[in-house]
């Protein structure tokens, strides 16, 4: 007969099975309600992976629920008092009944939420508590079969109670024996094994990375992916997003921070005129100031547009290119042939910050994790391209569930969102690491798209991934070794040569794959009608010692521009010393691509003729760079822009 401790651990395991079964049954209900049978047929190869990851999510929830009962077992292990053990046993039984019923109700609420919003529980779930919940409850009562649903929940809850009673009764004999509280080596071993299993389930993984939201993506089908996570996990994710949600500020406090007397003064400074007047409709005036109208006067053929954000593509590391150490590799030729801006910075200092900035121009961090991601913003970069006749696609080797990218980008009206699983479905031979599909495969798929004959021009926004920790590179990548003494350069803050080697290899791999892609691209017909823009999403962050290196390089990334022959001008080459940042990319593209549309213009056209180079600036969230004589004026313009942009989005979000 089992002793008390073995019996209690067995009881926890049985309740774990109950919790997993609850999620399984609700998941079946979800499949019946929302997933057509044809989808299961089309994505049959993804179903085993979906089932495996679904089990990981369910076991993680069960492990969190098991923490308290396991602690109770540990208490009894030391106390070994039959009276205490009996009371704690009753507590465990009651505890599981309450939690299992709560998880069942939450799972069913999630299905109801999905039927209305086509999404699992997310941050908008909390709007229920903010927008007259009594009125919403009345609407639910009037429009849904509440009595039927409550009856079903009541029956299911009663079933859970009966099941818990049977589990508890099965363990009762062990608890009535004083000898059952004896601790021996077998008991200790059992507790240790259970503890290890508990930790693994809490982490959700035995691999490098713990279970995370990206693991809910197992295919290119939203319906299949939505089968994977459970309601408890999605509620936890929503609560985290709510906690990190940005807060709005009063106009008065913003005026004080940015040193303006009024919004009118800021508008005048930013637009360099006094023609836009605040006359009651603040939002309309801000839209006029921040947006630029493009008429339908284009005379040339619209080019395809490819924007590549290269992971950690550092500007400063280009300076370390020497005859002994080739840092540029395949990009050397293209950097000479085309336009290269070195006085350039990213706007944000992280991957998601840079993606959010070019996609939406929202000044608040973590926009993709906010409730506003479910609304198409007037500032979406996809809108002017769509209105100008383009198809718009975000394409990356990463799992696009990361940071809610797939969800947010679709609401920002991208025609397609392509990530790791779509690329793998299109090319099963593609290899990948823990971050995503290798970049050289990604560029192959981009070239395939550019080679297609399409009715509309294409706009693609690409994010690479391979040059990112943990720096897992293709097995067959061949790069000439860097001399050992190269790593002794005083510019490096990182002194561990093995760590440095990974960063340098990542940078060189990036240049090799970019160069290989551009070699093939320029030999293709697509080169006759495609603009290619490449920049780093942010600088490499941890290996450079900026006490030894000029601070201007700290946030610096290069900007490379390829223009098709019919759009080139000889004067463009003389403009590459201008200061700029990611905010200038859209303004530079607009004359080549847009027609009969409006777009949020937060930067300058880097290829505009008749403008003095010294009036350009580079605005990163941490530092502003410009010619010394123009620094103060540039700071004033950027302050005005940032103030107006914050007020614009606060008032825009207030309408949602």
Summarize the structure.
This protein is an alpha/beta fold and 656 residues long. The protein is 49% helix and 8% strand.
* Bulk shape: globular
Which stretches are low in confidence, meaning pLDDT under 50 for 5 or more residues running?
none
* Mean pLDDT across all amino acids: 93
Would you report the number of β strands?
Answer: 13
CATH topology-level fold name of the largest domain: Alkaline Phosphatase, subunit A
CATH architecture of the largest domain: 3-Layer(aba) Sandwich
- The side-by-side strand order for the widest beta sheet comes to 3-9-8-2-7-5-6
Largest sheet: 7 strands, mixed
The structural domain count equals: 2
Helix content: 40-55%
Percent strand equals: 5-15%
Structural class: alpha/beta
Q: Can you give a write-up of this model?
A:
The protein is of the alpha/beta class and 656 residues long. The protein has helices spanning 4-34, 37-42, 47-79, 82-117, 127-130, 133-143, 146-170, 172-175, 185-203, 222-225, 231-243, 251-258, 263-271, 282-290, 331-337, 351-360, 382-387, 405-411, 420-426, 439-451, 497-522, 583-593, 631-654, and strands spanning 291-294, 304-310, 339-341, 344-345, 391-396, 416-418, 458-463, 530-536, 559-562, 580-581, 597-600, 617-619, 624-626. The longest helix is centred in the N-terminal third of the chain and has 36 residues, at 82-117. The mean pLDDT is 93.
